[in-house]
Amino acid sequence: MKIITWNINGYRAATGQNASKRYDVITKDNKLFTYIEKEKPDIICLQEIKADLEQIDKDLQCPSGYQNFFHTCSVKKGYSGVAVFTKIKPLEVNNKFGIEKFDGEGRFIEMKFKDFILFNIYFPKGYTDSERLDYKLEFYDALFSYIEKLRKKGNKVIISGDYNTAHKEIDLARPQENINTSGFLPIERTKLDWMEQHNYIDTFRLFNEGNGFYTWWSARGRARENNVGWRIDYNWVSSDLKESVKKAYIQPEVQGSDHCPVVLELK
């Protein structure tokens, strides 16, 4: 089984409904569907949709052979939003974990399958000295509390998405310069420490050590060409799924967003 997570930074641009621009080149290619056709994932989790379903052309709402599930932001149009395309019919789908200020921003899809529960999450960005940093930290706590209750019932879980936090110094190109930048603040990183301490596994690190592996690059200063990036997109699993993990890798060569896809293969 292949599960992919990818922050596409605008669904309509990724599918060619709207033009996208990279440097001086403007295109209307359907990069998302082309990528899915090539990779053939069983499930792909998308973040930062930035569109309601009715704003998306009908022929672009779902690639052939998949079911689609969207959770878009209800409090601010064109903001946030997540979607999942799956070949495997979920047993249950849930878009809320019961806290209105979080549920309204369209950051959460929970899917129950036979052998595990999959979460597609677009974690909030934090901004230093801002209420959004508190919002982000509270979101982490509320989500983990919700998921821990499911684990205590014997459920195996996968938490895929854009976490908006680089965990350790090896997870960004310039850690010292960003120690006071949201996304690498110690108070944010402790949330991922908590995950490690509570038997969640960053699957990428099962197969890859060291630095130089990133999933997001700033649009400024040709950061991507110079690989000056951050690893903030993850597939974490509960430890009872460790033996099922076959491969975990990133695809920095895949264009179409300022993030790249992150892949998890399970036996």
Which labels suit this protein?
267 residues, alpha+beta, Deoxyribonuclease I, Chain A, 6-stranded mixed beta sheet
Please characterize this protein's 3D structure.
With 267 residues, the chain is an alpha+beta fold. The protein has one domain: Deoxyribonuclease I, Chain A (4-Layer Sandwich). Helices cover 19% and strands 27% of the residues. The chain has helices at residues 11-14, 31-39, 100-103, 131-152, 186-197, and strands at residues 2-7, 20-22, 25-27, 43-47, 67-71, 82-86, 92-94, 108-112, 117-122, 157-162, 200-202, 216-217, 229-230, 233-238, 245-250, 262-266. β8 and β9 form a beta hairpin. The longest helix is centred in the middle third of the chain and has 22 residues, at 131-152. The protein is globular and about 45 Å long. The termini are close together. The model has no long low-confidence stretch (mean pLDDT 95).
Sequence-ordered SSE layout with sheet pairings:
Layout: E1 2-7, H1 11-14, E2 20-22, E3 25-27, H2 31-39, E4 43-47, E5 67-71, E6 82-86, E7 92-94, H3 100-103, E8 108-112, E9 117-122, H4 131-152, E10 157-162, H5 186-197, E11 200-202, E12 216-217, E13 229-230, E14 233-238, E15 245-250, E16 262-266
Parallel strand pairs: 1-4, 9-10
Antiparallel strand pairs: 1-16, 2-3, 4-6, 5-6, 7-8, 8-9, 10-14, 11-14, 12-13, 15-16
Principal-axes geometry comes out as globular
Low-confidence stretches: none
CATH superfamily: Endonuclease/exonuclease/phosphatase
**Into which percent range does the helicity of residues fall?**
10-25%
Q: What does the largest sheet look like?
A: 6 strands, mixed
Tell me, rounded to a whole number, the average pLDDT: 95
Strand proportion, as a percent range, falls in: 25-35%
- Secondary-structure arrangement, i.e. CATH architecture: 4-Layer Sandwich
Structural class computed from helices and strand pairing: alpha+beta
Could you name the CATH topology?
A: Deoxyribonuclease I, Chain A
